[in-house]
Amino acid sequence: MSTTTVTERVDRLDRMWTARPGLLGWLTTTDHKRIGLLYFWTTLVFFGAGGVEALTMRTQLIEPNSHLVGPELYNQLFTVHGMTMIFWFIIPMTTGAFGNYLVPLMVGARDLAFPRLNALSFWIFVASGIFLYIGLFSGFGPDAGWFDYVPLASKLYDPGRNIEFYTLAVIFNGMSSTLTAANLIVTILKLRAPGMSFNRMPLFCFAFLAASLGLLFALPSLTADTIFLYLDRNVGTHFFDPSHGGSTLLWQHLFWFFGHPEVYILIVPAFGIATEIIPAFTQRKMIAFPLVAIAELLVVFIGFGVWAHHMFATGIPTTTLIFFAGATAMVVIPSTIQVFAWSTSILVGRPQFKTPLLFIVGFIFMFVVGGLTGIMFLAIPFDQQTTDTYFVIAHFHYIIFGAAVFPIFGGMYYWFPKVTGKLYFELPGQISFWILMVGTNLLFFPMHIVGLLGMPRRVYTYPANMGWGSYNLAETIGGYITGIGILVLFANLVVSYFRGAPAGPDPWHGPTLEWSIPSPPPEYNFAVLPVVSSPYPNWDHDDRELDGRRLEAGEGLLDQGHQQRVSALIDGWRVGIADMPHSSPWPIVSAFVLTLMFTVLVVEKFVVAAFLAIVLLATFLGWHSKEPQEH
Amino acid sequence: MKQSGDRIRGARLAVLGGGVVFVLAGCGNGQNTLQPKSPQAGSIATLWWIMLGVSTFGLAVIVGMLVVSWFKRGGVGRERPATITVLVLGIATPILVIAALFSYSDIFLIRGTSAPPPTSLVAKRALDITVIGHQFWWEVHYPKGKVVTANEIHIPVRTPVVVSVTSRDVIHSFWVPELNRKMDLEPGRTNQVEIYASKVGKYRGQCAEFCGLQHAHMAFYVFADPPPVFARWLKREAKPATRTLPLFQSTCSNCHAIQGTPANAHVGPDLTHVGSRTTIAAGTLTNTLANMEQWIAHPQEVKPGNQMPDLKLTGAQVHELAAYLESLK
After folding, report:
1. Chain B: nearest CA to A4, how far in angstroms?
2. Do the Cβ atoms of B208 and A387 come within 8 Å?
3. For the segment B103-138, what is each residue's pLDDT rounded down to a tens digit?
4. Does the pLDDT value for residue A37 go beyond 80?
5. Helix or strand or coil: residue B172?
6. Per-residue pLDDT tens for B34-53?
7. Measured between beta carbons, which residues in chain B are less than 8 angstroms from residue A384?
8. Tens-place pLDDT, residues A507-548
9. Looking at the complex, does the CB of residue B107 fall below 8 Å from at least one CB of chain A?
10. What integer pLDDT is reported at residue A582 of this predicted model?
11. From A42, A432, B8, B75, which residue has the greatest number of CB atoms within 10 Å?
12. CA of B265 to nearest chain A CA: how many angstroms apart?
């Protein structure tokens, strides 16, 4: 009797939430899981592009005086490589793919707070990436470095359209990141399950909250900066022109006011992934939970006060340098708290070194190496000696590849069973980890040495008698090994998708709510909205049995429409119910119009752009013509 | 038995560590931060070795924890000691270490590596020179006289030299690693950096801020000479050229200057004593007659994207110009 009603209830939810079939379903979807997967596949394409660029550069540098690529192409390669990996791989992979897919599942929600905005954000992201690569393939790839210093990037010294593809692509992409960040913040603050007060919120969500807040406050600075540059180049303003009272240092200040928080925005989500994998594979709660939660937020907050340490060699006054070195010293502490919290948690738990935890162990090692060289940069004279050399390249690749991408790989393995419903193959997984561990260290470690031996960054070639050749050869070999490791990793995931054993809902005995529902999750995520009493809700068996009883009793279902519960900010208790939009064609239409607008801006057709802005507003009206109700 | 095994392993580590030190410090390319030839660069190198030592220890603690968790057997550890570990190793220890590093480097050591204040005794006895950055070469001015040269800086040994740097176009960075830290060349601003050579020698420098297509080929040399040698060099540099070449006037004088001739443009390097320099095109080629011919005939092949155009000269013209320039000692 009761089983029938349970089946009926679940069927009813299924009917209400099932997406449109086929391609149209994907183009108009507002489901956070589908959008998360779309983000995942698209960012992987950009990751591949950035990787090809990196390997081309490494091949060029394999020996002194090489002529594989000329300076013109090389400058575009390192600029677009940096932009791609930061703006079109790591940010969309963490906030777009992982955040989108997992945050609603972890807080016990049915979707992100603004599903159509989420779709818009994805389509803008795709369009901005295509926009950038059209620039590169038409010979106008940005070529002044990813931090695009003026006056090198001004019209006088870079008269082509290259920098338009920089400024506009960055603004375009920033819109997408801003929307996703706002969406995640509201979701984490307002859609948490009953009982999920802040002290019971998973550390993963703290990390994504910190990263999203960082994006929201850092991006405006970059947007302003790039708009100023666009105006300087195309309208004749003089923001950055010293001969007319402008300042070249203004660009650097505005850029790094974004650029340093950006580094933490890139790695904090990875910290969040680590704090999920560690409890799952040690079967023990994280040590120093509140400290770690605060440290995740604090690292982004203090990260806003350290930007000028990228400018220690620009000749700004010594007092200023010392202030920023002091701030840089402060930002170390939240990081050391987390490093020791992760490692003691592994130490005092019962670690099972499966692939996801291996990647986290590798991540801790790489992060500590990159962190220690980072601390060295707070010693101003040493920074002034090594900045703009390969020592810096080594440092930030340990951070960005080691500390941001390793946990992303670990997370791919960890949540693979949840997303696909299949188990991955363990042995090839571990092999892929060891290949990557050897490859990345061989790739990046010698860069420290060659930097200390005087090799500046961003040189397309170097003389033979400098003693840099053998290190560069080793780095290039390391680069190819890294490439092989990545191929093994993805080959394993692809084969596992087709041949893997069924995973069941909870293969790892994971701590958080996503493991309490079937794999892959149904479209409505939770049949009964769960009640939470700790940060490890899936380990609270009484609570999860209660979910089952409530499903039988028909409580907490929200099956009267396409609905989502809205909760109070502090403690997660219910304040209302919102009707959620289902699918919508408007986001992709708006994104298309926006793309046309950015395209005509490349060639300075301002009148057409203004017309397209009006068309864009019209699409927003269409979007809002069918508005869901709030109860 | 186990102890002796540890000792052997320890000895191996020491040899390995020593090997790293040897490899790092052993590369004599004239541009090695770890072969300092001045007190300033020396203090930075010492700072590096101290930081490397402390960092290696810190890394060893973390790696030790990870290795122990890999091999350990048995149950779950207690919460309290673990939290205390986080507090002590994650907060207290780093605060102490970083405070020490901050005070040592950013309050004391930084004074020695910064340019001396204009009123100080060091500044008063220092030689002042000006370096102006161009895409992709260095213009060097000496005070009290008309000495202007390019890409090669001569300084007296064991004498403080205050270099005022600025740029005519984009941002460059002046960097002679063995003599001191780097300093950016910003258009519209003048920055100062002190260089000092404890030993007579030739030191390589290179542009360290990405400045465009030929950033890779924007090197220069600093020659630290005994003071009398330096004085003779300066005197010779101040002399104008004695011969004018009409072909130079018609082909090169729109961009280049040769003192003592009508050529007086300052777009490219001053060539009054180009024959006495050791390299051409900002450290790209050694200065020989054949290389000079190659550079004049195919500037865009030697250094693609540099500002010197290919003038489509005949072989005879190239030879005449090169021979003339090489005669300007």
Report:
1. 43
2. yes
3. 999 999 999 999 999 899 888 999 999 999 999 999
4. yes
5. strand
6. 999 999 999 999 999 999 99
7. 113, 181-183
8. 999 999 999 999 999 999 999 889 999 999 999 999 999 988
9. yes
10. 80
11. A432
12. 21
Q: Is the pLDDT of residue B280 over 60?
A: yes
pLDDT value, residue A1:
43
Helix or strand holding residue A138 (H, E): none
C-alpha–C-alpha distance, residues B77 and A109, integer Å: 34
A303: CB partners within 8 A, 6+ apart: A214, A260, A261, A263, A264, A331
Number of Cβ atoms within 10 Å of the Cβ of A235: 9
Cα–Cα distance, A310 to A249 (Å, whole number) = 12
In which band, very low, low, confident or very high, does the pLDDT at A12 lie, cut at 50, 70 and 90? confident
Residue ranges of alpha helices (H) inside A377-425 are 380-386, 390-397, 406-420
Give per-residue burial for B76-112: e unless 16+ CB within 10 Å, then b: ebeeeebbebbeebbbeebeebbeebbeebbeebbeb
A162: pLDDT confidence band, cut at 50, 70 and 90?
very high
Instruction: Test A378 with B101 for CB contact under 8 angstroms.
Output: yes
- Contact predicate A74/B308, CB 8 Å: no
Residue A372's pLDDT is 97
B21 has pLDDT over 70: no
- Of residues A325, A353, A457, nearest to B106 (C-beta): A325
Q: Cβ of A322 and B110 within 8 Å? A: yes
**Nearest-CA distance B180 → chain A (Å):** 7
pLDDT band at B223 (very low <50, low <70, confident <90, very high): very high
Residues 119-158 of A with CB under 8 A from B: 144-145, 149, 151-152, 157
Model pLDDT for residues A552-581, shown as the tens digit of each residue: 888 878 877 788 888 888 888 878 888 888
Q: Hey, are the CB atoms on B70 and A351 less than 8 Å from each other?
A: yes
Question: A110 - beta bridge partners?
Answer: none
Chain A residue closest in CA terms to B302:
A65
Whether a cis peptide bond, with omega within 30° of 0, leads into A317 is no
CB atoms within 10 A of CB B116: 18
Asked if pLDDT for residue B4 goes beyond 50, the answer is no
What gap in Å lies between CA B219 and CA A27, rounded to an integer?
54
Contacts of A236 (CB under 8 A, 6+ apart): none
- Please tell me what DSSP assigns to residue A501: P
Among the partner residues A283, A313, A344, nearest to B82 by beta-carbon distance = A344
User: What pLDDT, on the 0 to 100 scale, is given for residue B5?
Assistant: 45
Burial A121-149 (b: 16+ CB within 10 A, else e): bbbbbbbbbebbbebbeeebbbbbbbbbb
- Cβ neighbors of B221 (< 8 A, separation 6 or more) are B30, B151, B152, B153, B202, B203, B204, B205, B278, B279, B283
The encoded tokens of residue B8 equal 């052997």
Q: Is A243 on the interface with B (CB under 8 A)?
A: yes
What pLDDT does residue A628 have? Answer: 60
Residue type, A123: W
The DSSP annotation for A16-45 comes to HHPPPPHHHHHHS---HHHHHHHHHHHHHH
Contact (CB, 8 A) for B173 and B207: yes
Q: Which of A1-5, A358-362, A573-577 shows the highest mean pLDDT? A: A358-362
Which two structure tokens, joined as six digits, stand for A339? 């490093």
Using an 8 Å Cβ cutoff, are A360 and A366 in contact?
no
Residues facing residue B264 across a β-bridge: B257
Residue B179, pLDDT > 90, answer yes
Q: Report angle CA A355, A361, A366 to the nearest 5 degrees.
A: 125
Alpha-helical segments (H) within A288-354: 289-303, 318-348
Helices marked H in A28-114 — which ranges?
A: 32-60, 71-83, 91, 100-107
Distant-in-sequence, close-in-space partners of A549: CB < 8 Å, separation ≥ 6: none
Q: Which of A71, A345, A364 sits opposite B305 (nearest CB)?
A: A71
B50 inside 8 A of chain A by CB: no
Q: Which pLDDT value is given to residue B66?
A: 95
